[in-house]
């Protein structure tokens, strides 16, 4: 039986969501394949996962300037990026080595940048002979995402190819279909709204800021309610129960606002929406793209969030809203100028149609026909 290893990390849900989409594609190609997972942060040592998650959330919420400084330093100082990647690669790679050798995979798929660093260390030390690819689950690549020793690096749009090559010019970069589960696809908006109990004639704005639900979500909800009487905001709080509690009084005051916690209905809500409002542009942005929905990037979070927003806007897939007033203006524009909404939705659909499927990416990585064995 073919063995496939997914190297991911529980840093929110985005990296694991990409991994699940790839696992589904593997089973569509090779139904008998055995798929195993490694969480990079768990492999790096006891306590590393909680520490790194705390650092990430703290930087985004409390010290965004520090997060931005680190991010910009990776771009401005090649020596800093190289040294950082080599340090993390050696740390992670040495700990990955035994796990990879014990499982003996035929194919390795990375969805987390630190995992890719460790895999490159293994490749440079002749301990990773099988095809190995990395899927960048952000719209905008950054230096920690790209490694020339891996066989393929997959980006999410043609606009992302030049920055990926700027990170590591010798890397091999291809454009992937959005790495989301097959349920995220264009669908009938009215049918989805009927099933979810959403008004058919409203302008539905789905607000989703990842599983952690951080950022200026409450301000976004208020701005959307004030933007136009036809707007129905649907706010998905994920696992942020405190946010859900804070929004409850606002929903009681204005019944247009729908507040959800963790839900398995994200594909249906995305299809039912007119726009998706987010602030990071990772998995949520890719799910919107796969469903043909425009994205409103409201107060993008520091570093990768801002980079994702700018690149999505350059591709005609998003409108960047730095303030609440800009979010209201963007919504009113899309309501009063439906051709603008149509152009953005068509750009998303056109891109997805041009990129093929995740299976195509896997075949490009392995260089085999689906009827053949990986070995």
Automatic annotation (TrEMBL):
Domain called Glycosyl transferase family 28 C-terminal: residue spans: 205-348
Record's subcellular location: Membrane
Segments forming domain Diacylglycerol glucosyltransferase N-terminal: 17-180
Gene3D superfamilies per the UniProt record, alphabetical: Glycogen Phosphorylase B
Keywords for the protein's UniProt record, in alphabetical order: Glycosyltransferase, Transferase
InterPro entries: Diacylglyc_glucosyltr_N, Glyco_trans_28_C, Glycosyltransf_28_UgtP
An example Gene Ontology molecular-function term: hexosyltransferase activity
One Gene Ontology term from the biological process aspect of the record: glycolipid biosynthetic process
Taxonomic superkingdom: Bacteria
Gene Ontology CC annotation, any one: membrane
Predominant localisation class: membrane
Stated family: Belongs to the glycosyltransferase 28 family.
Protein name: UDP-N-acetylglucosamine:LPS N-acetylglucosamine transferase
The species this protein was found in: Amycolatopsis sacchari
